[in-house]
Amino acid sequence: MGDVLCCTPTIRALRRAFPRAYIAALVVRYSQDAITGNPDLDEVFMYEKAKHRPDRNRIISLYKQFQVERELKKKRFDLAIGLRSTFSWSEAWLVYFAGAPFRVGYEPDRKKDWRFAFFYNLQVHPSLHEHEVEKTLHLAKSIGVPPAEKGLIVTIPEEEKKAAESFLRENAVDPQKLIGFHLSSRVPANRWSPEKFSDLATRLIRRDEKVVVLTWGPGDENRAEEVHRRVGAGVYPFPTPHFKRLGAIQERCRAFVSPDGGAMHFATAVGTPTVGLFGKTNPQYWGPWGNGHVALRRGGEADFISVDEVYQAVHQIIRKPNENGFVKSRRPGENRGPDSVPAKAESH
Length: 348
Hints:
Layout: H1 2-17, E1 24-28, E2 43-47, H2 58-75, E3 79-81, H3 89-97, E4 102-106, E5 122-124, H4 132-141, E6 153-154, H5 158-170, E7 178-182, H6 194-208, E8 211-215, H7 221-231, E9 235-237, H8 243-251, E10 255-259, H9 262-269, E11 274-278, H10 283-286, E12 294-297, H11 307-319, E13 335-336, E14 345-347
Parallel strand pairs: 1-2, 3-4, 4-5, 7-8, 7-10, 8-9, 10-11, 11-12, 12-14
Antiparallel strand pairs: 6-13
Helix pairs in contact: 1-4, 1-9, 5-8, 6-7, 6-11, 8-9
């Protein structure tokens, strides 16, 4: 999810460079919420990996990928770009079999992958020590496409916004007092404990008169129930069956706290000041993108980050509402993040 969102500034740059072109994206179905409705795309194609299928059937997955590739060939694309920041043979062959005469992507950085290098005929030397957004923009620059706006772009449907608005109205919640927590991360080292989320919520409610909305990923209902039980009044669980619903409530938050992952990037894409909690991942490359965000990391485990550190980061945001650089204006049907550079990671 985060990978796809970090590609959206590059898609914007391509649209600005080729305003009359037909531009499409191919993404794994799991990440569709990050890209569907994107105003810079004419069409979105989706495929499914075996690990995302309920039956995990690799044969069916490959057959469906073949069907998608056949549809792509019919479009007769002139140019195809593999937008991952490092060479991936599985992505490169999808680009190759789409049939475009010009194929751009990063050259392999591992010896064993050089046998697949021919999938790209316009190879780009890897761009090191840059944020993921800059790495994908570098691919576009290699063919003469300059950056446009650098904010992440995501579209939240009106029905999802209405669902979030209804939730706020039913619970009499003032969005100016609303702080969002996302409790889940698929990477164990990036998880923050329910005890610490509970302590943080208690501080914000008692000291700052805020209210807290809880979101979580599949399988983490118990973590949300534990935080709700520990804190009690002032905490509101908000189930999000998909990322569009998550983005709708994030957009209404004054600040959002999340482990590194898709939820964190979604928060920045809708323009909400975000505190990212990092463990295994280096925020230099994957930190929340834009001014006014904070990336926290202590050692290799997010749970090493103290409650006080996160509280101070959130308090810094809510104390200076007019100094975070965010502008939540948008075109009809579009949500945009700030045109800015990544927040400096705070390493501890």
